[in-house]
Amino acid sequence: MPRIIKNGAIVEEHGPEVLDLEQWLQSEDRARRAVVLEPGETLAPLLEHIDDIPLVLVNFPTFMDGRGFSYARELRERGYQGELRAVGHFIRDQLTYLSRCGFDAFQFEDESELEDALESLGDFSEFYQASADQPQPLFRRRA
Amino acid sequence: MYVYDEYDQKIVDERVAQYRDQTQRFLDGELSEEQFLPLRLQNGLYVQRLAPMLRVAVPYGLMNTRQLRKIAQLSRDFDKGYVHISTRQNIQFNWPQLGEVPDILAELASVQMHAIQTSGNCIRNTTTDQFAGVATDELEDPRPWCEIIRQWSTLHPEFAFLPRKFKIAVCGSRQDRAAIHSHDIGVEVVHNAAGETGFRVVVGGGLGRTPVIGVEICDFLPAEHLLTYLEAILRVYNQHGRRDNKYKARIKILVKAMGIEAFREAVEHEWAPIKNGPSTLTGEEIERARSFFTAPDYASLDASAAQNTLQAQCQNDPIFANWVKRNTREHRVAGYRIVTISLKATGYAPGDVTDKQLELVADLADRYSFGEIRTTHQQNLVLADVEQAALYELWQSLQKAGLATANIGYLTDVICCPGGDYCSLANAKSIPVAEAIQARFDDMDYVYDLGPLELNISGCMNACGHHHIGHIGILGVDKKGQEFYQVSLGGNQGKDTSIGKILGPSFRQEDMPQVMDKLLTTYVELRQAGETFLDTYRRVGIDPFKERVYAQDH
């Protein structure tokens, strides 16, 4: 069982089987299946089942590939409320950005980093932009 | 100018703390070189040929005197006592120690400055007209919009790992002094028939290896939609921009590949769901941003009396008169002038300025220009609000400090990147070429006679010296390990922007002054009354220049 960060805590993961996009598209009960997105794939078919999909994984083949940030933000903007998990080669210094885009779970390649990574989630306490965890941009909140 | 509140300060302070931890982890070996690279770049730190280089953000080129004095102090405490003004209006330290950078950033934060996103594959410093707010041809001050964009782009969670760097420029005047067609996104403030503020948006311009002139994606974007529309463009770029080849990763390549119609359609598609969402600007926020850029407390002056005094001073002192003519320009308020301080004295690297000079300029700004200074993308400084009656005193002080070179907009006001003397990306040195040309053309009467002339020099394809849009552009190239220089003619940065055309085979460094001489002689011989170099070039084309420069000596 992999250990992951989920909702700000380290937990053992007992998640469902995960399909790649092609398998997921061919699956008859896809609305209830978990799927992993790779950069360059379209998330349009997921939007149809956005209320039912339990888990979406987004893979980062390298931490420099920022496409996954947009997937997350778009899914959340369109109303996805299930688990959204980053997997692959992102680094802990990206956790603030990732969580603000809507990721609530992080599966690191190297599980020994988890404790330290948790700290990075708290790097910032204030932001200018609207984000998944703060739908109002700062200019609408300024006292 | 904009003043931080507790929120802005907190964000900058937390960024310093985060970077301090990242630097420590790198020095402890916990972060690899590869992982640390984008983190340090997004805090403005390059590792250069001889030492790291720290690029400090000067949002849209505006600083107060407290900030300028801090820069001077930091250049003494952490560097060699001088800094460089970049072609993106930023300030560069050339010799800081990597381990000391968090301390420098903390000092900067204490005067509301930072180095966030001055490098890396993210949204960079938004630039604008150095004469914003005081230019006579201005429709609307672009700086409130720049500040709104600055806040939106700072630590934007979605756009910190783009395919490549991303630059935005804003202009609000008839003449474009912000080169909006040479940016990833260019924003021009416009009014519609009803007099409402909006933006003409241009996308996909850029210099670098493949120079492209930006194309219009939207002719009138209502002001409140600015951020959601930018967000939609960035999202299309983040998803579809190429990541397999860094030379094809800028948005200009994507726009070309898709075609502007398909690109616009993709943007509209991304925009539809977020348009009118929470990031839509409120009237309150627009007013808040505008409230920081109101006119200073101008004196109501007797303009004709001031004019008479100035004229008398000019008659008595022709050197002063010349400086007034070359380095000052009309101000929108009667009795005031806009002063450009040239950082292009012959014998000094273009755009370099010492700690002592910075402190003097700060004193002068306090005394004569409401305590504000601007940096320009031509690598000079501006005092925007000087009373005509004070010009003589100001000039005398500048002259003593070697800051009164009267060459703004002329040949020797060279735009030049740091080049191979500092930069590890460069193919060739650029500063010695600039200096050799400045030294060759030391007869200022000849230089003035040549008229307005922009000479832009880049040490490599990255085009930090904007060589593509210089009337004469010089590009350093590497030929089998030797430094050579390619010349292009006919570039221009205004609203009728154009990309320079390559003259022909490149030249050795020592030949460059002679090549310049031939080009300029050709122009002088061919020009008709009143024609600038650019006018003549556009009329006669490149051939006469080519023939003269490459003619065999007999």
UniProtKB/TrEMBL annotation, chain A:
Pfam families tied to this protein: DUF934
InterPro entries per record: UCP030820
Protein origin, superkingdom: Bacteria
Name recorded for this polypeptide: DUF934 domain-containing protein
TrEMBL record, chain B:
Single GO MF annotation: 4 iron, 4 sulfur cluster binding
InterPro entries recorded: NiRdtase/SiRdtase_haem-b_fer, Nit/Sulf_reduc_fer-like_dom_sf, NO2/SO3_Rdtase_4Fe4S_dom, NO2/SO3_Rdtase_4Fe4S_prot, NO2/SO3_Rdtase_4Fe4S_sf
Segments forming domain Nitrite/Sulfite reductase ferredoxin-like: 53-110, 339-400
One Pfam family in the UniProt entry: NIR_SIR
Stretches of the chain forming a coiled coil according to its record: none
GO cellular component terms attached to this protein's record: sulfite reductase complex (NADPH)
Cofactor(s) the protein requires to work: [4Fe-4S] cluster; siroheme
Alphabetized UniProt keyword annotations: 4Fe-4S, Iron, Iron-sulfur, Metal-binding, Oxidoreductase
Keyword Phosphoprotein (UniProt): no
Nitrite/sulphite reductase 4Fe-4S domain mapped to chain residues: 119-272, 413-549
Superkingdom per UniProt: Bacteria
Gene Ontology terms describing biological process: sulfate assimilation
Keyword Oxidoreductase: yes
SUPFAM superfamilies, alphabetized: Nitrite and sulphite reductase 4Fe-4S domain-like, Nitrite/Sulfite reductase N-terminal domain-like
Gene3D superfamilies: 3.90.480.20, Sulfite Reductase Hemoprotein, domain 1
Protein name, UniProt field: Nitrite/sulfite reductase
Organism: Seongchinamella unica
